[in-house]
Amino acid sequence: MHGIGEGVPRKDAWEKVTGQAEYVSDLALPGMLSARIVRSPYAHAWIRGIKTDAARSVAGVVAVVTADDLVGIDPFYGAAFKDQPILAMGRVRYEGEPVVAVVASDEWAAEAGAQAVEVDYEPLPAVLSLDAALAPGAVLVHEEQLRPAGHFHDLSDLAGRQGNIVHDFHFRRGQEPDAIFARPGVTVFEDTVTYPMVHHAALEPYACLADWQGGELTVHTSTQTPFTVRQELAEIFSLALSRVRVVVPYVGGAFGGKCYTKIEPLAVALSRHCGAPVQLCLSSAEAFRTARKPSARVRVRTGVRSDGTIVARHVEVHYVLGAYADVGPRVTQKAGYVALGPYRVPNARIDAYGVYTNTVPAVAFRGYGVPQLVLGYELQTERMADALGLDPQELRRRNLLRPGERYSPDDAPVDANLKQDLEQAAGADWAAVLDEPHTGRGIAISLKSTGAPFVSHAVVRLRADGSATLLASTVEIGQGARTVLPQIVSTALDIPVDQVRMLEPDTAVTPYDQATSSSRSTTLSGLACQRAANDVKEQLREIAGRAWGIDPTQVTVAAGGLAHGERTMTYAEAVRAKFGMNGGEIVGKGSYVGEVGDMPLKGITPFWETGAASVAVRVDPETGEVTVLKARSVADVGKAIHPDLVRGQDEGGLVMGFGHALYEEMAYADGQLVNGNLIDYRVPGFGDVPDSLETVIVENQDGPGPMGAKGVGEGSTTVAAAAIAAAVYRATGVVLGDLPLTPEKIWRAMLGVKARETLREAVQEEVGRIGS
Amino acid sequence: MKAPRLELHMRVNGRAVALEIEPRELLIDVLRNRLGLTGTKKSCDVEVCGACTVLVDGKTVSSCTYLAFECEGRDVQTIEGLADGETLHPIQQAFVDHQGLQCGFCTPGMIMATKALLDENPDPSVPEIKAYMRGNICRCTGYHAIVTSIQHAARETARS
Amino acid sequence: MRPFEHVRCVSAAEAVRAWHDAGNEAAYYAGGTELLLLMKQGLSRYERLVDIKHIAALGEIASTQQGVVRIGAAVTHRRLELSPELQRLAPLISRVERDVANVRVRNVGTIGGNLCFAEPHSDIGVLSLLLEATMTIQGLDQVRRVPAWEFFRGPYESAVEQGELLLHIEFPACREGTRTGYQRFRHHERPSCIAGVLLEPGEDPGNCGRAVVAIGAAGYVPQRSRSAEAALSGRTWREVAAGAAEAAALTAAESDPTEDLTGSVEYKRHLVEVLTRRAVLEAVGRMEEGQA
Ligand SMILES: Cc1cc2nc3c(=O)[nH]c(=O)nc-3n(C[C@H](O)[C@H](O)[C@H](O)COP(=O)(O)OP(=O)(O)OC[C@H]3O[C@@H](n4cnc5c(N)ncnc54)[C@H](O)[C@@H]3O)c2cc1C
After folding, report:
1. In chain B, which residues have their Cβ closer than 8 Å to the Cβ of C108?
2. Which of A254, A597, B25, C96 could form a cystine bridge with B21, CB 3.0-4.6 A?
3. Is residue A430 left, alpha or beta, with left meaning phi > 0 and alpha meaning psi from -120 to 50?
4. Each residue of A246-289: pLDDT tens digit?
5. How far is the CA of C166 from the centre of ligand 1 (A)?
6. What distance lies between CA A436 and its chain's CA centroid?
C-alpha cells in the first residue's frame, strides 16, 4: 500500500513517458518575449564600448540590454559572495560571460539582434590555470571588496581574499603531521592528483521564465533551490520575500548545477525592463559556459606504520573556482573538512583553498568536492598497501572508522558500517574476468558529511475524504522525491500512497526548504513530511478521543482509520466530526531544523554518506583505451524506502563518475573553451556501461531519517573515479591520478614504465657484464 | 531577405495538419511552438543526444536539425501519439515498470528511438540495443535500467 | 537561422543552374546534417538551399555487369547499411556504415554530403580510398570524373568546386576472394583514427596479389600508404600476416597526423601503426574464416 522497501510506480512516470511532464521551456505566457545573450569571446578583457543600434533596428527586437540598463537594482548575485554581475560591467572575466541581452518577439529576431550587437573589447592577460592564479604577482580576477551573501551559517565569517584565493579552510587535529612523519618507523607517502573541469551536462539546459508585474514577481525556473533564488531576487530587486514567487516545474537533470541562483536575475531584469514576461532558455553550449564542477589539485601525504596503521595525514587541496565564487567557498570547506577520508587519523592537517581563475564559474556538483579528494587518498591507499606488502582491503579495514566513532570530536558519530560497505564492495567474484590479461580491479571507499545545518518544513493537509495533499519544496530532479515523500506520508497516515498528492514547489504556496541537494531530501525533508503527517495523526486522535470521551493517547491509528476497542472511525468521519459538515480539513505541520554550533561546519552533520565501489577494467595495452567490465557499488542507505530509486541514484552516480574518470574534460585553448558542446565533450553513453552493473543496498536502519533512512545519490559518484584509477593501476602498473584517464595519457604513462623497465634491464645487463 | 513561405501538409500522430511555414523552420519548433507538442525536447542541438528524436515515416530523425518542410506528405510520430488514451504503449509501460527514466528529459527521445528499434528488430540482443541507442544520451540513469526497460518492451511488444 | 529559400530540383542540370542563379549565395542541400549545424550557429549563411534529394539518379544504388557499384550522392548512410544488394556486392561498406555517427544521422545524412563536406574524421573518405572509388562531378558545362586519391584536398576541402554537384561514387568490383580489414578508434564522437586494409588474391590464390592500405581521421585528409601496400603485395598470406607489423610501421612513417581534440600527432601516429597492423591481421583472419 505504501510500498516501503518494495517500491511503488513513480508518480511522475506517466507524465514523463507520455510527454506531458512540463519543464520550464515548455511553458508559455501571453505576450511572452524571448531573449538571447551576447557572450564574451575573451577570457579577460575591458569592455570599451557596445554598439546596439543595429540590433535595435532588427525587426521584432524589443530591447537590447546592457549593464548600463540595470538601474535601480543591486545587480550582483552569488551564493557565497555577491561577486557576479547580472551582465558584465566594464570587464569580462571568462569566455562566455553574458555581456548583452537582446529581447525580441521570437527567437529568430532575438538571435538576429544578438548577431548585430557589436562589442569592443580590450583583451587583458588572463589567469587560466591554478599555477598561474597562485603565482606571485598574478593578475587578479577580482580586485573589488567582496561582499558576503550571508546565506550560510558556516560562511557567516567569510574573510576577505588573498590574491586569487577567494576562501580557505583549515582543520587540525593532534600534532603536526610533519612532526609525526619524521618519527622512526613511519613511512611517508605523497601523492598529487588532479581532477579536471567537468560540466554537469544535464539534458535540460538552464531555463527561466520571469514575469515582472509591477512589484509582483513570478519566476518559473529550473532550480534545485527555489528559496535561495527567491532570497537573491528579493535582494537584487528590493522586493519583500512575499512578493517574489518562484515556481519549479519538473527539472530535467541538475546534479548540483542548478543549486543557487544562475540565470534568474537576468531573466527578471529583462522582464522588468520590457514590462512583459521573458523566457530565457539557454542552449546546451551556453550551459557549458554557465557552470561546471570545481577542478582540483589534491596533495595527500600520509604517514603509516609498517602494519598499515595511519598515524598522520596532511591534505592540501586547491579547488579552482573560476571567475565567480558561486558556492565554491562552501564546497572548499565542506569537502575540505572530510579530506582525511573514512579513516581514523590521529594527527591531521587539512588546508583547503578556493581559487579564482578566468574560466567558467565552478558550482556545486554531485559529490560536492569529495570525489576529487577520494581520488587522492584512495589511489594512495592502493599504492601504500603495495609498498608495505599488505592487502589493500586489510589496510583499509585497519583504519576505517567504526560505527559510532567520531570523525571529529565535536561532530556526530559515524552512522555507517564502513567495514561492511567495504566487504560488500570487494565481495564480488570476478576471477573469471580478472584472469584475463591487462585487467585489474580497483576499489574505493569514502565518507561525506551531509550539509549542515539544514532547514525543511512540510505541511500535510488531510482532506475531508481522507486523502492528503503534501506541501513540501523538494524539487523533483529525477531522484523520485515526488514518489518517496508521499510514501513517507502515506506510511505515517497509513493510507494508500495514491491517496497522497505532492505539489510542485512554489515559494508562494509550499513551505520553506533550504535546498534539494546533498542527498538530503528523503532523510531530512522526509523527516519534516513525516512529522507533518504525525501532526495530522495527533489531531485525529484528539478528535476521536473527544468524540469517544477518552484520552487521545488511547486512540490507535491503523489501516487509515482510528480505533479504540470496538469503536472505529474513518479519517473522513473524523474530519466530519470535527467540523460538523462534509468539508474542512486537518492541517499538519512538520519541520526539520539542523543543529547549529561552533564546529568546523557550524552545524552537526545530520548523517554521513558513504560510498564504496569496486570496478574491473581492461586496458588495451597498445592504445591505452579503458573498458569497464564490471562494476559493483554499495549504497549504505539505512533503509531503502524505495529500492529501485536507490539503485537508480546509485547507478547513475557511478556512471557519471566513470565519465569524469575516463572521458570528460572542458578543454581550454587561449582562454577559450574549445569543446563546449556534446559533440566534442564526451559524456558516457550506452556503450560505456558494463552489462554487469550492480548496486548492493546495505540497510542497517542507522540513519536519522524516516524508518532509519539515510541519503543516497552522491556516494557512488564520490568513489567512481578513484576506483577506476585504482583499477587502471592494477591493470597496467601505472599510477595515474591526472583525470581524465584518456587512452593517450595511459599510453604515455605505459611508455614511461616500459622505458624505465628497458633502462633497468639495460643497466642490469651492463652491471652483469662489468661483473663478469 | 524577405522570408518566403510555403504550405506544409503532414500527418502528425495520425492527424492531418496543414500549416504555412518558412523554409527555415525546424521540425522541433513546428512541433513545440506551432502544434503545442512539447513532449519533444531540445537539448544538445547538435544531433548527438537524441532528446528531440521523432519518427518521420517510421525513421528516427533529430528534429532539432531537420527542416519542417521535409515532412510534406509524410507521417510524423511524436511521444504524444504513442499511448492509446489512458493505455500506455508497451514501451512506455516498460520504462515505467523498470525505472527507465529519472528526470524525464531524455525519455521522449529514448522511447521514440526504442519504437524505431523494435519496429526494425523486434528481438534485439543487448549489444544490438546498445549500438542502436548509441545516439541517445541519458545523464541520470547510467543506462542500465533503460537497457532493461527496452528488453522488457521487446518482450511485451512481441506478446501483444 | 536566417531566412532562405528552398528550391527543389528533379534533375542535376536544374540543380546546378539553380545554384548558379543565386550567384554564390546558394548551397546544395542533401540531408543537412552538417549544413544545418553550421547555419544554426550562424557560421554559414545562404539565401537559397538547392535540394538535391529529389533528383532520381542521385538516389540510386546500381551495379553494372562488370560489378561496379554506383551509389548516388544523395543515398543515405542508412540505405548503405541495410541494402541487401550492397551487402552482397560491397559488404565492407555496409559493415562500416553500422558504426558511422548515430542512427538518426545515418537516416538523413548522405554519402555525397559526407564526401563533399570533407570532414577530416570521415569514414567514407577512408572507404573511398580503400575501395578505389571514382567520383563523378557535374559543373555548369562539364561532367568530370575524379579518382578518390585526388578528391581530398584538405580539411573541409574536396575536388568539388564551388557550384559543382557530386553526382555519384563508383566502387569498382573487387576480385573474387578479396578480404578487408577495417579498424577505427573512437574516443570522441568522431573517430580519432581509422585504418583500412584490402588484400586481393593474386593469380596464385595462395598469394596476395595486391594490397591497399588507407588511413584517415588522424590527419587532415585520408591517405594511402604506398610503401605498406608494396610491402604486402606479392607475398604469401603467411608472409602478409608476418609482415603486418612492418607494413604498419611503414604506414605510420608515411602518415601525416595533425593534433586535435582527439589526440596529439605522436599518439595518432602510434594509433595508425596499431590499427593498421590490426586491420591487416583482421583481413587475413577473415580470409581464414571465409568472410569478405
Ligand atoms: C553527430 C555526428 C556524428 C558523425 N559521425 C560520423 C562518423 O562517425 N563517420 C563519418 O564518416 N561521418 C560522421 N558524421 C558525418 C555524417 O556522415 C555527415 O553529417 C553526413 O553524411 C552529411 O551528409 P548530408 O547529406 O547531411 O550533408 P549536408 O549537410 O546536406 O551537406 C554537407 C555539405 O556538402 C554539400 N553537399 C551535399 N551534397 C552535395 C553534393 N551532392 N554535391 C555537392 N555538394 C554537396 C553541402 O552543400 C554542404 O556543404 C557525423 C555527423 C554528425 C552530425
Report:
1. 61-62, 66
2. B25
3. alpha
4. 999 999 999 999 999 999 999 999 999 999 999 999 999 999 99
5. 13
6. 37
Beta strands in A420-579 (DSSP E): 439-449, 455-462, 468-472, 500-502, 556-558, 561-564, 567-570
Distance CA A579, CA A586 (A): 10
Q: How far is ligand 1, taken at its centre, from the CA of residue B113, in Å?
A: 21
Of B81, B110, B129, the one marking the end of a domain is B81
Contact A198, A366 (CB under 8 A): no
At A608, which amino acid appears? W
Residue C271 has pLDDT above 80, yes or no: yes
Q: Ligand 1 centre from A606 Cα, in Å?
A: 55
Percentage of chain A lying above the pLDDT 90 cut: 91
Q: Do A108 and C1 touch (CB under 8 A)?
A: yes
Nearest CA to ligand 1 atom 47: C28
- Adjacent-strand bridge partners of A98: A39
Ligand 1 atom with the shortest distance to the CA of C108 = 26
Q: What would you report as the CA-atom Rg of chain C, rounded to the nearest whole angstrom?
A: 19
Q: Check pocket membership of C100 for ligand 1, CB cut-off 6 A.
A: yes
Alpha helices (runs of H) in A23-176, residue ranges in sequence order: 53-56, 107-116, 130-134
Segments in A160-296 forming alpha helices (H)? 177-181, 226-236, 264-274, 284-288
Domain assignment present for residue A193? The answer is: no
B15 to chain A, closest Cα gap in Å: 17
Strands A608-619 and A439-449: antiparallel
Kindly state if the Cβ of C292 falls inside 6 Å of ligand 1: no
CATH 3.30.465.10 fits domain C1-173: yes
Full residue range of the structural domain in which residue B142 is found? 90-159
| Residue A552 DSSP one-character state | G
Same structural domain, A726 and A633? yes
**Which CATH number do you get for residue B66?**
3.10.20.30
C288 CB near ligand 1 (under 6 Å): no
Measured distance CA(C232)–CA(C208) in Å, rounded: 7
User: What digits encode the pLDDT tens for the residues B98-114?
Assistant: 999 999 999 999 999 99
Residue type, A616: A
The CA distance from A208 to C178, in Å, is 59
Could you list the residue range(s) of the whole structural domain that residue A770 is in? Answer: 744-772
Find, in chain A, the residue whose alpha carbon is nearest to that of B93: A17
Q: What global pTM score does this model have?
A: 0.97
- The last residue of a domain, from among A593, A619, A647: A593
Q: Which of C1, C2, C271 sits opposite A623 (nearest CB)?
A: C271
Residue nearest to atom 28 of ligand 1 (CA): C32
Task: Say if residues A425 and A720 touch (Cβ distance below 8 Å).
Answer: no
C37 CB within 8 Å of a chain B CB: yes
B74 in helix, strand or coil? Answer: coil
ipTM, two decimals, is 0.98
Question: Tell me, what amino acid is at A771?
Answer: G
Cell numbers given for C187? 574516443
* A176 among known catalytic residues: no
> DSSP letter at B133?
G
Domain extent listing, chain C: 1-173, 179-289
Chain A residue whose CA is closest to B64: A283
Q: Which residue among C117, C127, C156 has the greatest number of ligand 1 atoms within 8 angstroms of its CB, and so is best to mutate?
A: C117
Residue C8 CA, ligand 1 centroid: distance in Å: 19
Atom of ligand 1 nearest to the CA of C123: 11
Distance CA C213, CA C220 (A): 17
Q: Supply the CATH classification number for the domain C179-289.
A: 3.30.390.50
- Write out the H or E segment, with its range, that includes residue C210: strand C208-216
Cβ atoms of residues A625 and C188 within 8 Å: no
Asked if B108 contacts A19 with a C-beta cutoff of 8 angstroms, the reply is yes
